[in-house]
Amino acid sequence: MKTEDHTVQIGTEGCTGLITLNRPEAINALTHPMVLRIGEALTAWEHDPAVRQVLLRGAGERGLCAGGDIRAIHADAKAGTTGSLAFWRDEYRLNARIARYPKPYIALMDGIVMGGGVGLSAHGSVRIVTERSRVAMPETGIGFVPDVGGTYLLSRAPGELGTHLALTGTAVGPGDAVLCGLADHYLPSDWLEEFTRELTFAPVDEVLGKFDGATAPAVPLAAEREWIDHCYAADTVEEIHQRLLATGLPAAREASQTLHAKSPTSLKVTLAALRRARALDSLERVLEQEYRVSSAALSSAPDLVEGIRAQVIDKDRRPRWNPAALVQVRAASVERFFAPLGEGSELTFS
């Protein structure tokens, strides 16, 4: 059985349900119809005894998924409309469903995996990276805040590695993705075709046992843990900056320079979101918090429109953040992102 549409291909081969994101010209950027289509497939397969496991992959050579379709989000925010809220509501529910799916959910995190692509893959039960993997939550660079359960995942990374990745938006390779809890297994990219073929005949645990000879990838962040853990344990973004500069280390100084280019509001809200996510007891509670934050960013935070304009629309790479400096971002402005949305407007899970 195999059915197709333009943006997502859904089918089964042997005992495996196959989901192929099919927008290679946009590095498979995720749209609302794609989210709904994936959800429909998971529903169809959940109680189908012929489907033992699910495999997610991306069409093309560039990556699994570069994130959500931020051009559409930009248009929505600029127009003052709320179509993105419906997208996020269904996307975040899909993220939670993937995490709780009763059958193995295997994600091939080959190439670029960012933002919404992380949400589709890193909540799965079997997450495979390759030498081409570049995994990131780069939202602070567009005036947004990590979502799709990203603050859940990064708040639970070892030490302060997740804080570093969330604030700077740094993309990590396969070894660091595994270290940070964003992936489980490493396979060379030229093994993926055979790996996928084997999955049509056997369960994933059995197949993984046949592909255990790959050389372990490098883990650069492991050598940086001391200064990362010290600097990012600070209570404020301002103090993080100060600690980074005080180390005298080139890598820490580079991180400080990276932070200077990000939205000051997004940095402060992201740090608060991570700290709060650590105290929440489930992915669902964190997604509910992220929905509040995303809603505030869409409706009343100018940096989202400006960040997407500078990075994606005009591509001048010169965002004019408002406020322009960390010291100008007041605590009350940060708190507003976490305010209740009101009855009937919250994201909830049954």
UniProtKB/TrEMBL annotation:
<keyword id="KW-0378">Hydrolase</keyword>
<dbReference type="InterPro" id="IPR045004">
    <property type="entry name" value="ECH_dom"/>
</dbReference>
<dbReference type="InterPro" id="IPR032259">
    <property type="entry name" value="HIBYL-CoA-H"/>
</dbReference>
<dbReference type="InterPro" id="IPR029045">
    <property type="entry name" value="ClpP/crotonase-like_dom_sf"/>
</dbReference>
<feature type="domain" description="Enoyl-CoA hydratase/isomerase">
    <location>
        <begin position="17"/>
        <end position="338"/>
    </location>
</feature>
<dbReference type="GO" id="GO:0005829">
    <property type="term" value="C:cytosol"/>
</dbReference>
<protein>
    <recommendedName>
        <fullName>3-hydroxyisobutyryl-CoA hydrolase</fullName>
        <ecNumber>3.1.2.4</ecNumber>
    </recommendedName>
</protein>
<dbReference type="Pfam" id="PF16113">
    <property type="entry name" value="ECH_2"/>
</dbReference>
<dbReference type="GO" id="GO:0006574">
    <property type="term" value="P:L-valine catabolic process"/>
</dbReference>
<dbReference type="GO" id="GO:0003860">
    <property type="term" value="F:3-hydroxyisobutyryl-CoA hydrolase activity"/>
</dbReference>
